[in-house]
Structure prediction request, 648 residues.
Amino acid sequence: MTAPQPLISLQSVSRTYRADGVAVTAVRNVSFDIERGEIVAVMGPSGSGKSTLMNMIGLLDLPSEGALYLEGADVADLSEDHRSSLRARSIGFVFQSYNLLARHNAIENVALPLVYCGISRKERLARAEQSLESVGMVHRAHHFPRQLSGGEQQRVAIARALIASPLIVLADEPTGALDSRTGAEILALFAALNRTGQTIVMITHDPGIATQCRRTIRLHDGALVADETLAPIPPERSAAP
Amino acid sequence: MTMLQGFQIALHALRLNPLRSILTMLGIVIGVASIVTVFAIGSGAQLRLQEQIRSIGANVLMINPGAVYQGGVRLKDGSKLTMTESDVQAILEQIPEIQAAAGSIAGTAQVIHESKNWNTTINGTTTGHFMVRDWQLATGRYFSGSEEAGAGKVVILGSTVAHELFAPGEDPIGAQIRIMKVPLEVVGILDRKGPAQDDVAFVPLTTAKLRFLGSASNINRDSVAYIIAKVAADGQMAGARTEIENLLRQRHRIPAGQEDDFKVQDPAAAMEAQQGAIRTVALLLVAIASVSLLVGGISIMNVMIVSVTERTREIGIRRALGGRMRDIRLQFLCEALVLCLLGGAIGVGAGVTLSMTVARMAGWITSIDGQAIGLALAFSIATGLIFGFYPAHKASKLSPIEALKTE
Prediction:
């Protein structure tokens, strides 16, 4: 039996864009692994390459140099279609601006990734209902996004990210558009998901949020400047009254 | 994503903006409706001509009187009956290609049976007439030799006349009818040949001359108004025609260089030429109607391009959530197809209604066949595919990262 591979492994990953003939390096020579069950905060000022890194982990983008492995497979070897299918099945996106389809109600939005997994409408809706229930939004299943508050929309978006039981949930500033109380509720939801074993990577520029994650990766000018992991929480502490 | 899901998504998207969807479809609706209508009217006109051609019979030559000079004055065609029964005899006996021939005189009169009466064409002729036209009896018999020779008081009715004079279920054979106070016995009823042909009553030529139509001063005892002759085979038409012309010139003692006093015509050929003309005009009209289909297609393309731009963010979201490029392409292609198919279906409905209205109001014969409807629908599907492809392709090529950034 081979040693277990990390869920995601970045090896000397760089991403260079060419804009108006000028090469801009958004991410330079970044290496780190993400293990199953981790919750990782990616921090850095704006323009530090967080979103580019996220797009690559989310298979929306490919490294210009270096390699990114998902469960040991180099994603550069996968076809565009294969990467799309992996996005549908293995990756759950949560965006700062929710990105729900305005013309579809909550349950249809949640079911959307399953359309691209070839699952029947009946099963899609049944699973979407379960997923909505897990984020406490089943009572809003037939509301349209404009009828929901920001926090509610983000919960629906999280339900959508979870519906295909993804390997990893990628959240890009998930609380950035919310007030602090609602933001805290969303963070608590992520923490609860992580306790069930869900791997989560979360972009944030709020140090307060980052401290709630076990591990923080800091980027500056596209380079990795820190990768800190908190000491594991002693089991007595979580069991204490 | 399957085709079915593509159509579901398309229908959902189109329902959200019904006015725009309907306006977009309008070009296709008008295009398909005009194609269906033009087809219906065109093939109706052709059907009518075909019926006339059939009713004349195959390989039939018709000989009508031509212009004659009387003391240097040129009279119009047909003002004098120049052909005679002995011309008919001569054509039959001397031209081997001629299978059957008959002379006729005709007029109109009231036919009366008990309390019913009907105005119709009275045609005095010989049994040869039915042979030339391949006209079978529905019931009864043709004229006998003695009836033809002796001006027998018998009549054969076209089916329209029989229908007008006799109640359904009543047997007309043996019944007495009257034409111009002359009682005649019905001996036969003819098969249907077409509405214009069935309104006729045939009597023996001798009977017509002696009892009804013979009093006109320009008819000598022997003359007939026209002759019809059947040629044995298709390829012999031209030869038979020349032989008839030569024979009649000789019999009528027309010197070389002088005009014929008769005209030999091939009515089926003339009608076929007419049919060709109708076909050409109908094709031209269909081509014009197709232009509006083209305009409809362009309008669909225009709206689809706008729609792709408006929904860039939706495309980005769908791509991020696992939609492949081909799924996005299929989604937008399905939208264009649904627009065209719905437009096509509405257009077929409108076209059928329109041509039926034309048929009723103008009294034209129209014929709607599945082929024309299928063709129109195929055209609209093709329009959807052709004009929907570019916008759909454009949508599928969008970068998901860029698409997610747009507002």
Notes: Residues 6 and 22 of chain B are 20 Å apart (CA to CA). Chain B has a mean pLDDT of 87.
